[in-house]
Amino acid sequence: MTATTSTGAAGLDVPARSRWFAVSAVALGTFLLVTAEQLPIGLLTPVGAALAVSEGAAGLMVTVPSVVAAVAAPVVPLLVGRLDRRILLVALMALMTLANLASALAPDYGLLIAARVLVGVAIGGFWAIAGGLAVRLVPAPLVPRATAIIFGGVGAANVFGVPLGSLIGGLADWRVAFGALSVLALGVLIALLAVLPPLTAARPVGLRRLAGQFRNPGVRAGIVATFLIVTGHFAAYTFIGPVLRDLSGVDARLVGPLLFGFGAAAVAGNFIAGAAVARRLHRTVLAIAAALGATVLLFPLSGVTVAGGVALLLVWGLVYGGVSTSLQTWMIRSAPDAVEEASALWVAVFNLAIGLGALAGGTIVDALPLRGVLWLAGVLVLLAGAAVWTARRDERLR
Predict the structure, then answer these.
(1) In this predicted model, what pLDDT tens digit does every residue of 63-84 receive, in sequence order?
(2) Does residue 393 sit in helix, strand or coil?
(3) In whole angstroms, what is the distance from residue 199 CA to residue 4 CA?
(4) Which of 30, 62, 27 is nearest to 43 (CA)?
(5) Backbone angles phi, psi at 215, to 5 degrees
């Protein structure tokens, strides 16, 4: 038995119902992470007005946590050594609680950004550990389903978390929105304490083992595919509002409801992918890359009407919804003896790609017609498919 699975043996001694409660609590954690990371998108104007900064400067509330999370994902597991992962997740959720409370009370812009740095640490550390927890909480045949539930929190945040936070900020005050996040984080902390079993690490995550994952062809292909897919997606999706309005002719008042539909489709796609990867992992990831690339490339051609734009947006959400579950499962299968190390690298690349994607998209939009960002995204995602194809002979992924 590998070190990773053996560390999870204790978790498998817990009754089945308790294991699924634990999986659900971790899913609540991922819901909170994505909500906390993206919530400021809907609050840039009121925050900028209240703290006397531009909306561009306020946008650092989104960029800073993403970059910090990319660094924290491998660094936190390195620093904590053999610390019980249950204690670590609870501590990170406590940090999230305090950081969001500090955001709500921040008297000036500098302290608000400092609080967002702490949010990034919590996001990176929690996600790095949570991404590989399924193998320690449920038997091997149920790992894809448990992984899909854990990452269902990501889609749920896009559907409910971010719009709800923006609504609270609009109806009450942006500080109330951050305060509500703090209360939610405290609730998740209590849930984790109540249902997570002890998750003592049999060995610490070492720098040599972490760097050694780059010699694993499956991990390498997964990291490259993740970087290209996520960069491409966020390069285009960051500007989906202008694309729908200016390219598809959608009424500006309908953009919000349509993005809700995108998120709902993503939730469905997450669970469809979770079922598919249990049977055909490599083919599923390859199909996701091909379908996502084709959908984005079709947008400048077939998305020039309202009906075409709406249809392609929903397909986009359905396909992209399977990305997190399928690629996390890919990393678990590629490195069964080093799940934490592989997951930490994957989370770091994922968060870095979010920031780079938005930056690349902004550069393209400023220099080229709006269609240019869709072409860029489509090409990057298809290149990710080529990276996936290179691992076709790896038996662990087939």
Answers:
(1) 889 889 999 988 998 888 888 8
(2) coil
(3) 10
(4) 62
(5) -85, -10
| Confidence at residue 345, expressed as pLDDT on a 0 to 100 scale | 87
Distances (CA, A) of 185 to 192, 209, 213, 318, 319: 10, 32, 32, 28, 29
Three-state SS annotation for 244-280: HHHHCCCCHHHHHHHHHHHHHHHHHHHHHHHHHHCCC
Residues 254, 118: Cα–Cα separation, whole Å: 35
pLDDT per residue as tens digits for the range 153-176:
877 886 777 677 767 877 888 999
| DSSP annotation of 383 | H
What's the rounded Cα separation, in Å, for the pair 38 and 382? 26
Number of separate helices (H) and strands (E) present in the chain: 21, 0
User: Rounded CA gap, 337 and 326, in Å?
Assistant: 19
Instruction: Return the biggest CA–CA distance within the chain.
Output: 58
Residue range 345-357: average pLDDT?
Answer: 86
User: Which is the CATH superfamily of the domain at 213-398?
Assistant: MFS general substrate transporter like domains (1.20.1250.20)
CA gap 241, 295 in Å, rounded: 17
Cβ neighbours of 135 (radius 10 Å): 24
Determine how many CB atoms are found less than 10 A away from the CB of residue 6.
12
Amino acid present at 246: D
Query: What is the CB neighbour count within 10 angstroms for residue 117?
Result: 14
Phi, psi of 56 (to 5 degrees): -65, -45
| CATH of span 1-205 | 1.20.1250.20
So where are the chain's domains?
Answer: 1-205, 213-398
Residue 1, pLDDT score: 28
Alpha-carbon 375 to chain mean position:
23
- The answer on pLDDT for 13 being more than 60 is no
